[in-house]
Design brief:
The complex is a heterodimer.
Chain A: E1 4-7, E2 10-14, E3 19-25, E4 32-38, E5 45-51, E6 56-59, E7 62-67, E8 72-77, E9 86-93, E10 101-103, E11 107-112
Parallel strand pairs in A: 2-11
Antiparallel strand pairs in A: 1-3, 3-8, 4-5, 4-9, 6-7, 7-8, 9-10, 9-11
Chain B: E1 5-7, E2 10-13, E3 19-24, E4 31-37, E5 44-50, E6 53-56, E7 65-68, E8 75-79, E9 88-95, E10 105-106, E11 110-114
Parallel strand pairs in B: 2-11
Antiparallel strand pairs in B: 1-3, 3-8, 4-5, 4-9, 5-6, 7-8, 9-10, 9-11
The chains are: A mainly beta, B mainly beta.
Chain lengths: 113, 115
């Protein structure tokens, strides 16, 4: 099955700086890569996703890049704000008849005002 | 509209007790997933329903775990003879269809503590 590794496990940045979270996956057939943000005690919420037919996607201060050859993808947050503080999970979806999603272990991002 | 809801939000069970966790998906959503999230970890897949059919239960950790969705809407995850290692947050998610392009919407989770 799919295995997703995520680094770093914790990340502290000054407000206004950029944050980068990296993930690798093992199944070359995976074709969908969502990113979720989970605030303390809250449910995971999708913030951005990328499909294997594109290399980069951007939504305001958030961008995701995908390197299919190397089987890694990254989340980039620019101009970080305190409300960006949360745990971020990357995930990969295996190809097949339905959407089994494998999650990474999470990155706890702290934005220091 | 209403999102995915789960009940109870918190459950404390003595070791050996049976528990039942409920998930109300978004109305009309075909796909329903259960995940187990241990402290400090990402959600781990347990099982998947497409309408009332349980198409994948490969993530259920033991035969003490059982899930059902008899009418294709509400789902129940049952854990028999709970053990301390079952302590976790149990998340339910639903999506509109079965396409890989569909976003999964998560419920708030049920935090299970086995003492």
């Amino acid at each position: 099955g799919e295995n997703v590794e995520q680094h770093p496990s914790t990340l502290s940045v000054q407000e206004g700086d950029s944050a980068v979270i990296k993930c690798t996956y093992s199944d070359s057939a995976s074709n969908y890569f969502p990113w979720y943000k989970q605030e303390l005690g809250k449910r995971p919420q999708l913030i951005i996703d990328i499909r294997s037919n594109v290399g980069e996607k951007k939504d305001q201060r958030i961008a995701v890049t995908l390197n299919k050859t190397a089987k890694h993808f990254s989340l980039h947050i620019t101009e970080t704000q305190p409300e960006d503080s949360a745990v971020y999970f990357c995930a990969a979806k295996e190809s097949g008849g339905y959407q089994k999603v494998t999650f990474g272990t999470g990155t706890k991002l702290q934005v220091i005002p | 509209g209403a999102g995915v809801s789960q009940s109870p939000r918190y459950k404390v069970a003595k070791r050996g007790q049976d528990v039942a966790l409920r998930c109300d998906p978004i109305s009309g959503h075909v796909s329903l997933f259960w995940y187990q999230q241990a402290l400090g970890q990402g959600p781990e897949f347990l099982t998947y329903f497409q309408n009332e059919a349980q198409l994948d239960k490969s993530g259920l950790p033991s035969d003490r775990f059982f899930a059902e969705r008899p009418e294709g809407s509400v789902s129940t995850l049952k854990i028999q003879r709970t053990q301390q290692e079952d302590s976790a947050v149990y998340l339910c998610a639903s999506s509109l269809r079965t396409s890989g392009r569909d976003e999964q919407y998560f419920g708030p989770g049920t935090r299970l503590t086995v003492t």
